[in-house]
Amino acid sequence: MKLPRSFYQQSTLDVARQLLGKYLVREHQEGTTVGRIVETEAYVGPEDKACHASKGRTARTEVMFGPAGYAYVYLIYGMYDCLNLVTESEDYPAAVLIRAVEPLEGIDLMKARRRTDRLHNLASGPGKLCQAFAIDRKLNGGDLCDKVLYLEDRGEPVSKVVTTPRIGVDYAGPWKRKPWRFLVQGSEFISKP
DNA sequence: CAAGAGATCATCT
DNA sequence: GATGATCTCTTGA
For chain A, what is the mean pLDDT? Predict the structure, then answer.
């Protein structure tokens, strides 16, 4: 079943943890791709220096200030897109970054888009999975309760969850230490240990 | 296998 | 004018 908007309206840390084991579904003219989420990160509110919205309400961060259940997609390092799911209440800027999924459906399509045959290199990173799933900034602000990009609960629980500090946020002062990265323990499809 | 450099541009100062 | 919520390729052990 498709995750309802109420799912995204919970606290960001809860959403990030509960997203593990859920299914990311992308419907595209070229075909449908599906993956099981194995790695997420939470970016929580205006105080969190690692969160883009800590710099204020701008054109880029506007979506994060909006209601829950919408996609925040931005370009990083001039070449890769990253997918986030907006959480919590309107006017409270927070989101969950999807960092890695285990490829399940549309694998040939992912291989073509990623230009590799290595299953483990298709979606094991935020930039990689956006490439594999054809997610770019055109989807920024898109409704996750619509049918282009959404999440499903297929009732398969996650064995065990591990947390670590977030990746690539050394500039965030004390916030870089927060254990807000969530991983499915033992998954071979995560971005890094 | 590990470490380092380079690619590349929207966003904010 | 500086800088990233990254990835790939090259180098060297």
Answer: 97
- State the CB neighbour count (10 A cutoff) for residue A156: 9
Instruction: Note the maximum CA span of chain A.
Output: 44
Neighbours of A50 (CB within 10 A): 21
Closest residue, CA to C1' of B9: A78
Check the CA dihedral A175-A189-A13-A152 and report its sign: positive
Residues A144/A69, Cβ–Cβ less than 8 Å:
yes
HSE (side-chain half, CA atoms, 13 Å) at A144: 31
| Nearest residue by alpha-carbon distance to C1' of B6 | A77
Q: What Å value separates CA A71 and C1' C8?
A: 27
Please give the Cα distance from A64 to A93 (Å, whole number). Answer: 5
Separation of A58 CA and B12 C1' (Å) = 9
- pTM more than 0.90: yes
Q: Express each pLDDT in A76-117 by its tens digit.
A: 999 999 999 999 999 999 999 999 999 999 999 999 999 999
Residues in chain A: 193
A101 closest CA partner among A166, A26, A190: A190
What digits encode the pLDDT tens for the residues A141-162?
999 999 999 999 999 889 899 9
